Amino acid sequence: MWRLLLALAAVINAATTSHDVVRSFSDPQAAPMSLFNHLVVDRITGRVYIGAVNRIYQLSSDLEVAQSIVTGPVNDSALCTFDCPPNFVKKPADNVNKALVIDYATSRLITCGSVLQGLCSVRNLNNISHDVREVREPVVANNASASTVAFIAPGPPNPPMTQVMYVGVTFTGNSPYRSEVPTVSSRSLEDDRLFMIARTAVTTGTRVFVNSLMREQYPINYVYGFSSEGFSYFLTTQLRGVGSDTYYSKVVRVCHDDENYYSYTEIPMSCTGEGGGNFGYNLVQAAFVGKAGSMLASELGITAQHDVLFAAFSQSESINTNTPSDYSALCVYSLKAIRRKFMQNIKTCFSGNGSRGLDFISPSHACIGTKLQSISEDFCGLDVNTPLGGKQPVEAVPVAIFKRRLTAVVATVTGDYTVVFAGTAEGHLKKIVVESATSAFEYGDIVVDERSPVNKDLFFDTQLMHLYVMTERKVSKVKVQECSVYKSCLTCLGAKDPYCGWCSLENKCSLRSDCQDAAKDPLYWISYRSGRCTTITQVTPNQLQRTTARTLDLHIENWPTLNGQFFCAFTALDRTLITNATMKPYGVNCTTPRTDSLPPIPAGQHHFTAKLSVRTTQGPDFVATNFTFFDCNTYSSCTQCVSSFFPCDWCVDGHRCTHDTAENCRNDILVTGVSRMGPSYRSGPGFCPTINSTSDGTNEILVPSGVKKGNKSKSSYNRPIYSPNEVRMPV
Ligand SMILES: *[C@@H]1O[C@H](CO)[C@@H](O)[C@H](O)[C@H]1NC(C)=O
Ligand SMILES: *[C@@H]1O[C@H](CO)[C@@H](O)[C@H](O)[C@H]1NC(C)=O
Ligand SMILES: *[C@@H]1O[C@H](CO)[C@@H](O)[C@H](O)[C@H]1NC(C)=O
Ligand SMILES: *[C@@H]1O[C@H](CO)[C@@H](O)[C@H](O)[C@H]1NC(C)=O
Ligand SMILES: *[C@@H]1O[C@H](CO)[C@@H](O)[C@H](O)[C@H]1NC(C)=O
Ligand SMILES: *[C@@H]1O[C@H](CO)[C@@H](O)[C@H](O)[C@H]1NC(C)=O
Ligand SMILES: *[C@@H]1O[C@H](CO)[C@@H](O)[C@H](O)[C@H]1NC(C)=O
Ligand SMILES: *[C@@H]1O[C@H](CO)[C@@H](O)[C@H](O)[C@H]1NC(C)=O
Ligand SMILES: *[C@@H]1O[C@H](CO)[C@@H](O)[C@H](O)[C@H]1NC(C)=O
């Protein structure tokens, strides 16, 4: 039996998982170590591209393979570049995808791999095996683990008209050629200069190097990159300074309209709160720039159009490593606050206060005070105090903390709510509502690919209704909601899923957009936060003798304002009977069906329960409750009768059970039922005229004593005996 139950539970579990995951893709032909590295979704066509070890895939939005190409292994040596002399020893090397970027302006897919010093290719978005152009320029990291972040945003020569590819790369010390690869650069997307540094002058250009003395000991790990309002940003983890052995997170920023990277600035970012250890959640692991729902936006002092950074952080596993532990936190920053913090740092230095910092780039010195009157948030740098490392951090407290390592973050808005989906190192997807700048709660956790870390590249489909969740060997298309599994208003709102609400006119849990007339009345689509369910709180009377009819008084809570005729429907034993309902302020009145149309009470039972619902002319049930029809006449013994859940009384003389003593028990001795309200002299089975079998085992007919109906009364009432003049009606 246990075995069966467990098996059933397993099936149900599997069913819930597969409900959320509508499609998945994995490549059975790929080598065991051929992991997926990057994923990108074309926001116009919805196509999905995957960069893997030695493979690039082009998939439909339903994850069907349209094209797959082999990119490795290739014979390679870190000690030479593309034109390796024949005498160099080359070994087959895996080509690990390090960057996968869509250039919408030219409809090209940019793919960069770890081999041949990290070069990039462009391909036709419609068919990635067409129009392939490989550019012999080292751009990305040339090993499997060193970080690379690449994205396209406005840049020189003529932003915002012209776009460049911003690239952040961890230095790999494995080759003399790596000194040519900047740690941060803007690269041209013009055909004749493809992937070259966008602008260079004698000593400056759109690039920054970690200085040659430091770069071996000062690795910078690039985590995420984005552009917002005239600037491009990278989130990084790095040492707290040259000579330090502890790590923290920093935001790196350059101005789009800056051919010299004079605007290059770094400031610390913190996500600190309770349980954050010595340094808080110091290592940023994944991030996403999106928008806030109206509630969060107003708390952050911004509008729904402004950018918001959602970032997942972990604590260092031990104090002097940048290996993340399982303790993580989610922090939310408005870009407005980040811009202001950059400006404050820049102002401080330009007023001559503190030192310029960043001596891992070039030796630091004291900030030079300038006569610059006003440095605005859009300040794009000058050839003094550059590059600049500010000390004042951009700060936030976690909105939520987890005993799981978050590895991916994406956010969206539904209604007024801000929803974050976060991938974990265990292959789960967490669903989180950010309710304010300091609080969020997790309302769901889906197993996507147990025990395989979720990749940072977490994307919505074009409709924002699914997420592509990539783990090491699998891409899953996951529904953002599954409202329809909730079958009642209470479970629907109880799920606290901001996508779901109770569509009261259609009696279903659904997206707002799937609920007819949702806009007409807030009670037509009830969301979890605003809402209490429309419920019948009281029916008077709440049960009825089947042989009678009454007007019922239904109190209904959260009763939407509705026009038109309403009906009460009584559904029981495969029969539905409809009666007219009259609207009143807090509910409806309706009569019970004609007694001759009600189904009979099933043999051997004393009642049936009907579903009593209120409905519109066409619509389904609006709200429902149970309503019981009972029949006292079905009880043949006093004990049963007066112990019943129903308001039944026993007429001793009449030897019958009845709901209406006034009508059926006139001048009779009465034992009132336990379910009767109010005081009574004789209530309950204790007052029934009970009779015991004779001790000799004969089966004689016995009648109540004190009543001259027979002449043979071997046993008698073991209770008080009543005479007719004592009869009292129940009150
Ligand atoms: C892409 O091009 C290749 C080679 O021309 C062709 O075999 C393949 O069918 C094309 N794929 C798609 C999805 O058009
Ligand atoms: C790598 O080089 C070996 C011999 O040097 C050759 O046999 C092999 O085909 C080459 N592999 C590739 C992928 O070019
Ligand atoms: C890649 O380079 C980084 C940075 O130099 C180094 O820490 C790491 O060990 C290298 N990984 C491999 C697989 O060579
Ligand atoms: C320099 O910065 C410190 C700390 O931020 C502050 O206390 C001090 O007033 C500043 N001095 C000037 C001249 O701005
Ligand atoms: C509804 O029924 C109750 C009790 O039967 C009665 O007092 C009330 O007047 C009725 N209201 C309407 C609007 O019919
Ligand atoms: C219900 O109401 C309709 C219209 O208001 C009326 O025609 C019909 O006779 C009523 N039915 C009953 C059973 O009262
Ligand atoms: C109505 O009755 C059904 C079955 O008898 C029960 O499962 C359900 O909880 C009841 N509903 C209410 C609102 O009491
Ligand atoms: C009747 O029977 C019950 C148990 O069967 C016993 O407890 C009770 O004493 C009996 N009453 C009389 C009056 O014999
Ligand atoms: C009692 O009833 C029996 C039959 O059940 C009858 O023969 C007898 O006469 C009756 N006695 C009296 C006193 O009525």
UniProtKB/TrEMBL annotation:
**Major location category of this protein:** membrane
Where in or outside the cell it occurs: the entry states: Cell membrane
The record describes its membrane topology as:
Single-pass membrane protein
Domain Sema positions? 3-480
Q: Which UniProt keywords apply?
A: Cell membrane, Developmental protein, Disulfide bond, Glycoprotein, Membrane, Neurogenesis, Receptor, Repeat, Signal, Transmembrane, Transmembrane helix
**GO (cellular component) term, any one:** plasma membrane bounded cell projection
Q: Lyase: is it a keyword of this entry?
A: no
- Top-rank taxon: Eukaryota
Q: List GO BP terms, alphabetically.
A: anatomical structure morphogenesis; nervous system development; regulation of cell migration
* Signal sequence region: 1-17
GO molecular function annotations of the record: semaphorin receptor activity
Q: What Pfam families does the record tag this protein with?
A: PSI (PF01437), PSI_PlexinA-B (PF24479), Sema (PF01403), TIG_plexin (PF17960)
Protease in keyword set:
no
| Record-linked InterPro entries | Plexin (IPR031148), Plexin_repeat (IPR002165), PSI (IPR016201), Semap_dom (IPR001627), TIG1_plexin (IPR041019)
Q: Which family does it belong to?
A: Belongs to the plexin family.
Tell me the protein's name: (apollo) hypothetical protein
Q: Which organism is it from?
A: Parnassius apollo
